Fold:
Amino acid sequence: MPTKKPKKTKTTKQTKTDAPSTQAPIAPNTSITLTIPAKQATTAYKKTLAKLAQQVRVHGFRLGKVPAHIAQEQLGRPYVVEKALGDLLPEHYQTALKKGAYTPLTYPQFSIVSSEEGKDWEVTAQFAQKPTVTLKNHKKIITDAKKQHQAEQKRKDAENKKKKADAKKSAPEREQPPADPNQAVLQAIYTALITTVSPHIPDLLIKDEVEHELKSYTNQLKQMNMTLEDFLSRRGTDFTTFTSGLAGQALGRLQLTFILQELAETEKLVPSEKQIDTYIAEQADKDFASKNKNNPEYRAYIRQMLQREAVEKWLLAL
Structure:
């Protein structure tokens, strides 16, 4: 996956992994150490410093004529190191990923461990890996959830029937449109799977989801000429409480996503490329389909949609 250049890198030492929560199924982030040989680090530092010296303004020197040692005094060694790492880390990071057979789901967070002059530099990279999902007796979990839901629905139907009978004796009650029974069954199954399988989700993945949700909220509120602070004030809550709620929702969504993905792979419900091609060919907008049939993002969207439909159909038929 693409590698972003690091944001301002902290110089404090980090533990190998973040500590997992004891209150929620949150997994530690994966952490790897990148070692940059002293010779390569020194070369990169000098090259970066020379480049920065061309841009820095120092009283008494013309732009582009500032000596390297003066530029270093002006900028500070940590700043130059950070800029040098921006060029060094992508290659070292990708090499480490291939060597360890890692498959990150998030961009890395880099942190400097050591960057002493004349010595190897060490930097830790933290990222979220795909969580492990163990489906044990998943068919029984699903069938038990359906039975429990049917029993609960039968009880509710009896209660509603009695309420309607009582209502007819007094005032007529407005009929409510019936809810989709399949969606209710699926929701019961999803709840049972999340509760029972309960895969641990990496912390960074949850934080990414929360950040995405916050941006979405901010954009929607902006269209209503309202700030997030105003929104929270009207709801009588604060930022910490609000984001904690978003994190809880994100955790549940991510758990379900990975459970259903594992279920699709286990039960061989993942759509083939031929099925995706067939679906695209059957679309009414032929021009759009023709232009986008080889678009990776469009095909990924179709794959996800077809897979979700296949999984839901399988769950309801079980």
In short: Residues 138-169 form the longest helix (32 residues). Confidence is low (pLDDT under 50) at residues 1-22. Residues 53 and 67 are 7 Å apart (CA to CA).
